[in-house]
Design a protein that fits this description.
Layout (H helix, E strand, L loop, with lengths): L7 E7 L6 H12 L4 E8 L2 H36 L8 H6 L8 H12 L2 H4 L6 H9 L2 H6 L4 E8 L5 E5 L5 H7 L9 E3 L2 E5 L9 H4 L6 E5 L13 H34 L10 E5 L2 H5 L11 H22 L42
Helix pairs in contact: 1-2, 1-12, 2-6, 6-8
């Protein structure tokens, strides 16, 4: 009788999205619970960066179960810290069952305030409860000592406009806060004499560190910002929100296009080697479900909402494993070619659906 099959090794790319990062928490919890899956590296931006370092901290402490427990405790702490915030759902929002903050007086006041004044004017002492939460919740010495899982955190250099990717052993509360520094809300984070803003402007998340990982060819993106919205935004808030979605997805689309061009070069020139490998790309998402979450709900940290998002994320991961587990190590389940056309539909090609190519970049014959 043969032994158990070897786990499928994957790299994970984790998008940012405020409280919507609890969707990623659900995805990670489901993957960590599955012994068939082994995580080699994590690349995260903003909330994705927080999920990544929390997972590494817990994993270094007590393996898979330690990572799951650490994620639960972190998101619970986020909710507790936001409990007394003036930015809460309105009475009507609670009555109607909406998670949106669009009718919240505190949210509307805060939104207008940040459009009129910079964080240097509103918060000259640079008080940041989120940084204190990170420093108290995460043991960065453990994160930096974690050799089983490589962690990459991306921030944007304000002066040069280029990305900087932090990894072990230089990860810290500052590097994670730099990755999550929205410039209209927080003062830029200074590290080594340079100022940094949110990494989403340059890589949401950065894929290139994962492309270079020789432990696996499977790159799994956990997407929590919708690429497509069918309806034209017609209000001021809707227009701003859609601009932000496009901006924070642009770097991801650009890197995915670069991967597809590398695939074409490998196919044309026969460059397959340890240095030039056809990466197998996969996506965990539920695009339609993302569209029913208003942008303002990214600031809603109610525990019931975070649990709701976690359950959604678990369902996404479950569906992905059901459809695409057998694709891991064999073929991409994400149609990169669709990123080169304006007639765009979400390029998730399930096994046996939508005429997938039998030798789609990195098939078993590679």
């Amino acid at each position: 009788m043969s032994g158990a099959a070897k786990p499928r090794v994957i790299d994970l790319a984790l998008q940012g999205g405020g409280a919507h990062g609890a969707l990623t928490w659900g995805v990670l919890d489901r993957l960590l619970a599955d012994p068939r899956i082994e995580i080699s590296s994590l690349s995260g931006t903003s909330a994705g960066a927080m999920n990544a370092v929390v997972l590494a901290d817990g994993f270094q402490r007590d393996g898979r179960e330690g990572a799951r427990q650490a994620l639960h405790e972190f998101w619970q702490a986020v909710s507790e810290a936001a409990r007394l915030s003036p930015i809460q759902r309105s009475f009507w929002g609670r009555l109607s069952g909406s998670w949106s903050l669009d009718s919240s007086p505190g949210y509307l006041f805060f939104e207008q305030l940040t459009r009129q004044f910079s964080p240097y004017e509103l918060n000259p002492l640079n008080i940041n409860p989120l940084r204190e939460l990170l420093a108290s919740s995460i043991d960065f010495e453990r994160v930096n000592a974690c050799s089983a899982i490589k962690v990459f955190v991306t921030a944007t250099n304000v002066r040069t406009g280029r990305g900087r990717t932090f990894t072990q052993p230089e990860l810290s509360a500052d590097s994670v806060m730099a990755s999550a520094c929205l410039p209209f809300i927080y003062q830029a984070v200074e590290i080594d004499g340079e100022a940094y803003w949110d990494g989403g402007y340059i890589g949401n998340p950065a894929l290139y560190p994962l492309v270079e990982d020789t432990a696996t060819r499977d790159l799994v993106i956990v997407q929590i910002n919708p690429l497509v919205r069918e309806n034209l935004p017609r209000t001021g808030r809707a227009i701003i929100n859609r601009i932000n979605e496009i901006t924070f997805n642009a770097s991801l689309v650009k890197e995915l296009r670069a991967i597809e061009l590398l695939h074409q070069l490998i196919d044309a020139e026969g460059l397959e080697s340890e240095r030039y490998r056809a990466i197998l790309v996969h996506l965990i998402h539920a695009d339609e479900e993302l569209k029913d979450l208003d942008a303002s709900s990214k600031l809603n940290a109610e525990w019931t909402f975070l649990q709701h998002l976690k359950r959604r994320g678990e369902a996404w991961a479950e569906r992905f494993l059901e459809r695409h587990y057998d694709d891991l190590g064999v073929r991409s389940s994400f149609d990169l070619k669709s990123l080169f056309t304006d007639c765009f539909r979400h390029p998730d090609v399930a096994a046996g659906e939508e005429n997938p190519s039998p030798d789609a970049h990195g098939g078993a014959e590679r």
